[in-house]
Amino acid sequence: MLEIKDLHVNVHGKEILKGLNLKVPPGEVHAIMGPNGAGKSTTSYTLAGRAGYEVTKGEIDFFGEDVTALAPEERAARGIFLAFQYPLEIPGVSTMNFLKTAMNSQAKIRGEKELNAAEFLRAVRAAAKELNISEDMLKRPLNVGFSGGEKKRNETLQMALLKPKLAILDEMDSGLDIDALKLVAEGVNKLRSPDRSFLVITHYQRLLDYIVPDVIHILAGGKIVLSGDKSLALQLEQNGYDAVIAKAA
Amino acid sequence: MTGSLSESLLATMEKRRGAVAPWLGDLQGQAQEFFKREGLPNRRVEAWRYSDLAKALRDDPLPDATPVFAPELQQAAVAAFVNGVLDDKSSYARIGAVNLRTALGEKDSPLAGVIGKVYPQADHPIVNLNTALLEEGLALRVPAGEKVSLPLHLRFLWTSAGSDRHLRLLIQLEEGAELTVYETHDGAPLFSTVVTEFTLGKGSKLTHIRQESFLAGARQAAVTLGEIAEEATYRAFYFSQGGQFARHEALLKLAGETAHAELDGAVMVADQRHCDNTTVIEHAAPNATSNQVFRSVLAGSARGVYQGCIKVGQVAQKTDARQLSRALLLSHKAEIVTKPELEIFADDVKCSHGATAGELDANALFFLRARGIPEAEARAMLIEAFFGEALDKIESDVLREAVAKSVNAWLTTHAGEAAHVE
Ligand SMILES: Nc1ncnc2c1ncn2[C@@H]1O[C@H](COP(=O)(O)OP(=O)(O)OP(=O)(O)O)[C@@H](O)[C@H]1O
Ligand SMILES: [Mg+2]
């Protein structure tokens, strides 16, 4: 489903990704770990199509289509979803209105039927309940005054409603207490399916105890330097990046 | 300078002096003298530095499309001014409003003590011009304690046909009275001035929703003059899309204790349009409060001007006066000029002013787009949110929706524009 080939990305004229290769087959969960500044968030933003992340070389194939030239909304409609490391607060835009606009915009781009008000409400209520998101939170402006955990739950809610084919979770675990972490991880696990893949970016083994990955990649210096199964996370936890990367080289 | 225009205006003043009512002749004569001396306001006059009316009138009027007129408000008393002439078939009499021309012409007109006397502006070029050229308008006095349930819709329909027009509106709210005025301007006056004088008696409340949806060629200078007595409230929302020249001034005097003025401005200008909001708020009594927030969205090479002056007299202790200008620039060629001025002569006061100008938040925009919302729509959502707080303060659902419609109409045309600028 996703195949990144020799991806080079410049941010503000500086090369951050330097030949990244990555393949995620349908239904699999892949984790990306790596030291601070390695280029993990850069990878996720580039996949989502953020302006300023200039692809100078390489391709991002998504279901066989190179998406590097597509606008963020086009990619979203094709099924790429980025859960933000730091979800934005957007005053004045109600969460409900945002959710509805997002769902219907995607449907429109895909040429599908938009939801009517009742269908939409039903879908939101059901998804919100599972994630312990109150009606009151839904009425508030998007993420405004939400706690760190509430913001991440809200990201998970969006993912549940938008039903992406590839979900990129950038440090989903940052700022979460154990209970919130479990809740979010459960939400993610419920969405696991043979035709949905996940790219889970994290620094910690802990998240991967809850969302068990099929493959773990280590990103350092703008490239994937090592890939392995879930035992890799344990090695990292014990020995640190430098040792593990040095051993692999 | 505008020799020929000034001359023709003077000739018209000569004709109109005392024409509506002989007793008005003196007042009009003084106004005419002022005009003779000062002419049309231009950028050499400090208060008109960023809005040169003389030049705008010298320029050729921009050609315009056929105007689309906003619908008449249902369940309202309507005063329709078609090219500056009050349509006597409209329903303003339902709430006791009267044709100003008729009322001024009456013997011992009760308006003699009102017109030009509310918050006198001997040195104001537009008020003087309007007085000297005055011929049409509306007057309304709401008796003590009466809470008028029907809003008054002042519906100005301008086509570029016809000459210049100068309207005067007089509104008096007696003690405890309440009224909502919905003022709409559509089309494009060649040159018009509208001067509104209102007095708010003790504990009264005037809600004023002003919605300018001019075409590009409109040239108008409007002034709202008000005196607000103790415990009274003036609650205003000014929406404007600007024009070739569009300026509205609110000159308000908080004359009694705990009088309150609350002004929200929403400016949406594109292309080469010009929009000026100027306010002067005089705190002339203790414990009065004023709060103004002007929000502007500017696209193309439009220019917005916000001049906000707060005057606090020596007696006006415990004044609380705030003003804020916030601008979103959708293009690098658009411009906002903000000029705050504080003249404070009391020591125990709280006064603040602030100004921000910036582009739409790129992070927020990316967030919305990454969820599948197309760029133009995402921009529109953020701009709508920018105005949201002000719109939410409009109490009447009908009026809030009417304004929201203008906001959305503008967004449909212009929200996507900036996408092509960078
Ligand atoms: N806007 C920017 N301007 C300049 N440099 C940037 C910008 N954004 C990112 N970088 C640089 O790109 C590099 C990779 O950053 P990135 O955020 O992708 O790292 P990361 O792997 O996500 O790190 P962390 O674990 O701290 O989240 C860093 O050196 C960072 O300083
Ligand atoms: Mg990061």
Distance between the termini of chain B: 39 Å
Mean pLDDT of chain A: 92
Overall domain count of chain B: 1
Q: Estimate the strand proportion of chain A.
A: 25-35%
Instruction: Report strand order across the widest sheet of chain B.
Output: 2-1-5-7-9-11-13-15-17-19
> From N to C, what is the helix and strand string of chain B?
HHHEEEHHEEEEEEEEEEEEEEEEHHH
> What is the fourth-level CATH superfamily of chain A?
P-loop containing nucleotide triphosphate hydrolases
Query: Cα-atom Rg of chain A, whole angstroms?
Result: 18 Å
Q: How confident is the prediction overall: mean pLDDT of chain B?
A: 94
Shape of chain A: globular
Give the helix tally of chain B.
8
User: Structural class, judged by helices and strands of chain A?
Assistant: alpha/beta
Which quaternary structure do these chains form? heterodimer
Major pleated sheet of chain B: 10 strands, mixed
CATH topology name of chain A:
Rossmann fold
Domain SUF system FeS cluster assembly SufBD core (chain B): 160-386
GO biological process, one term (chain B): iron-sulfur cluster assembly
Protein name (chain B): Fe-S cluster assembly protein SufD
InterPro entries (chain B): Fe-S_cluster_assembly_SufBD, SUF_FeS_clus_asmbl_SufBD_core, SUF_FeS_clus_asmbl_SufBD_sf, SUF_FeS_clus_asmbl_SufD
Topology:
The complex is a heterodimer of chains A (249) and B (422).
Chain A: E1 2-11, E2 14-24, E3 29-33, H1 40-48, E4 53-62, E5 65-66, H2 72-78, E6 80-83, E7 90-94, H3 95-110, H4 117-130, H5 135-139, E8 141-142, H6 148-162, E9 166-170, H7 178-191, E10 197-201, H8 205-210, E11 215-220, E12 223-228, H9 231-248
Parallel strand pairs in A: 3-10, 3-11, 6-9, 9-10
Antiparallel strand pairs in A: 1-2, 1-4, 4-5, 7-8, 11-12
Chain B: H1 3-16, H2 25-38, H3 53-58, E1 77-82, E2 85-86, E3 98-99, H4 100-105, H5 125-133, E4 136-142, E5 152-158, E6 165-173, E7 178-187, E8 192-200, E9 205-214, E10 219-228, E11 233-240, E12 245-254, E13 260-269, E14 274-283, E15 289-298, E16 303-312, E17 320-329, E18 335-344, E19 350-358, H6 362-370, H7 375-392, H8 397-414
Parallel strand pairs in B: 1-5, 4-6, 5-7, 6-8, 7-9, 8-10, 9-11, 10-12, 11-13, 12-14, 13-15, 14-16, 15-17, 16-18, 17-19
Antiparallel strand pairs in B: 1-2, 3-4
Helix pairs in contact in B: 1-2, 2-5, 6-7, 7-8
The structure holds adenosine-5'-triphosphate and magnesium ion (MG).
Residues 11-12, 14, 16, 34, 36-42 of chain A line the site of adenosine-5'-triphosphate.
